[in-house]
Structures are given as C-alpha cells and as structure tokens.
Specification:
Length: 276
C-alpha cells in the first residue's frame, strides 16, 4: 500500500461514532478524506472539528444511503471529482432501532436495515470498483457485525414477524456474503475487500438508541477498523471476515455459494428496480 498521505479514502457514515473517529484518524495521518453523511450541518461540524484538530480539510458529500438514487449520485460525484480512490470504507449503518419499533422501509420501499447496511454498500462498491482498480493497490473495508442471522429464503426482507434485531442481523450477514463474492470478482485486480465486526456494543448512537449499556469503546472498534484500512501486513489479504482483529468464521450461510448467489441476485434485482 501507498503511504497514507498519498491515499484518498471515502468513509460512509462519517458524521457518527466509528466513522467520525476514523475520519479524524485518517486526517491525522494526512490522507485525503471524502466524508459521506446524510446531513449538511453534521458534515460541516465534522469538517470544522477535523480542520481545527488536524489542520486538514475534509471533503464532504451529502447522500441519504436509504435512497439508491442518492447512493448512485454519491458514486458519480466521487468518480467525477477524483482520479484516484485507494480505500472505500462502507461504515454507515442503521442499528437495531428502539426496542419494539415497527418495520421501516427506505425511500425505495426496501426494508431499511437491508437497504442501508447492505444494499447501499453493495451498490457503492460496485460503482467504485473501476476507480479503485485503476488506483490499485486499493482496499474496500466493510464494517459488518458479529450479530448475524441467516436470511430466510421465503422472507429475506423480514416482512413477517419483524423485529429490528433480526432485520439488522440479516442485513449484516448479507454484507459479509457480498464481501466474499466481491473478493472473488476482484482476484488479480489489486483491490482487496474484507469485512469486520469492529467491537461489541460500542458507545455510539445506535447502541444508545436500543437502550443497550455500551460494552466497548469507539476506540476499540477504531483500532480493528484501522487495521483493515492501513495495516501494511494485510496487503493482498482479501475475502476475510474479522471479529475485531482476529480472523473469524461468519454464520455458515455466508460460506454457502448457492445462498450467496441467491442474495446476489436479490440484491441486483432490488438495485435495478430502484434505479429503473
Ligand atoms: N456500535 C456497535 O457496537 C457496532 C457493533 C458492530 C457493528 N457496528 C457497525 O459499525 C458501523 C458504525 O456504527 P456506529 O456504531 O458508529 O453507529 P452510529 O454512531 O449510529 O453511526 C452510524 C452512521 O451511519 C449513518 N447512517 C445511518 N443511516 C444512514 C442513512 N440513511 N444514510 C446515510 N448515513 C446513514 C449515521 O448518520 P448520522 O450521523 O446522520 O446519524 C452514522 O454516521 C455500522 O455499520 C454498525 O452496524 C457497530
């Protein structure tokens, strides 16, 4: 990998817990950071804080990842503004929600956790692969979770018996499945893709929203994520899932090629339907 001060890094979910901490760390190391958020005020606040702390400017892009049109526009903006991209960190996510909350859907009418945690990351990565490939060596880091549940063939978008924890865990497993598939597609390109569980119940907005007592710090999740972004010993490592800093086995559904093909077809169909 190149030195960080010669890398351009796109971080989604940059205005919240882990993403925000990652943007600060990247700026401290002199990386050119493109920070995605869904709210202009929070993006301006982030850019101001980072500039005061590090003297580095952060480029911001507003996009609501619950809209695949916005995801597509985000990708297009990056492609138009940058002739290189070395790391994509798909970090944005929607958590369990409040306890007892009812099912929510994205702007495109897709179950919200599947749409933001998995589909947005899926589409963004695929749109940016040509730029990442031409910038190689490059990395894609998928911030997933150890909280995983197999997708139900008859009800992948949790239309029946909904609860936020189930929907979140299915979406996170879909993200890991997409990571394994994409790693296969990227063999020989110089672009790697890995997924991780950053840390368990970090003290962030999604954990507080669920009313869960935090069990770890954002700093712990940052260390695990930072390793996948910047550790030179992971050069060339691709298609792995990490629990923190340890290589781990995800839910067995992720290792089933037939299940992965099914989720991939479902994802392609949902993206195509949303984008028309
Ligand atoms: N917290 C944990 O213990 C834990 C454990 C395992 C995995 N993770 C994963 O770690 C990642 C970061 O989560 P976090 O803990 O830092 O939680 P967080 O503080 O709630 O951050 C989530 C981020 O996602 C963004 N986001 C949510 N919905 C969005 C949308 N529709 N469009 C664009 N951005 C959206 C949020 O934007 P706003 O700033 O505008 O709200 C925020 O920046 C997530 O993928 C999460 O699933 C977290």
């Amino acid at each position: 990998m190149r030195p960080l001060d010669r890398q351009t890094v796109l971080v989604t979910g940059a205005t919240g817990g882990l993403g925000r901490a990652l943007v600060h760390r990247l700026a401290e190391h002199g990386a050119r950071v493109v920070a995605q958020g869904r709210n202009e005020e929070r993006l301006a606040l982030l850019a101001g804080d980072v500039e005061r702390a590090t003297g580095r400017r952060v480029e911001t892009v507003r996009a609501d990842l619950a809209s695949l049109t916005d995801v597509d526009r985000l990708a297009q903006t990056v492609l138009e503004r940058h002739d290189a991209l070395h790391v994509l960190v798909n970090n944005a996510g929607v958590g369990f929600g409040a306890r007892g909350a009812t099912r929510e859907v994205s702007t495109d009418g897709i179950e919200l956790r599947f749409a933001v945690n998995h589909l947005a990351a899926y589409h963004l990565a695929r749109r940016l692969v040509p730029l990442l490939t031409s910038s190689a060596p490059a990395r894609i880091v998928q911030v997933a979770s150890a909280g995983q549940l197999p997708l139900d063939h008859d009800d992948p978008l949790t239309e029946h018996g909904y609860d936020g924890v189930t929907a979140y865990r299915r979406a996170k497993l879909a993200q890991v499945m997409a990571t394994f598939d994409l790693a296969g597609d990227l063999v020989g390109t110089g672009v790697t893709v890995n997924a991780l569980h950053p840390a368990t119940f970090m003290d962030t907005a999604m954990v507080r929203e669920y009313g869960q007592q935090p069990l770890s710090t954002v700093e712990e999740g940052l260390e695990a994520t930072w390793r996948l972004v910047a550790d030179p010993t992971l050069d060339g490592v691709s298609g792995w899932y990490f629990d923190g800093t340890e290589q781990a086995r995800p839910d067995p559904q992720a290792e089933d090629p037939a299940a992965r093909s099914w989720v991939r077809e479902l994802s392609d169909r949902l993206v195509a339907d949303a984008l028309g």
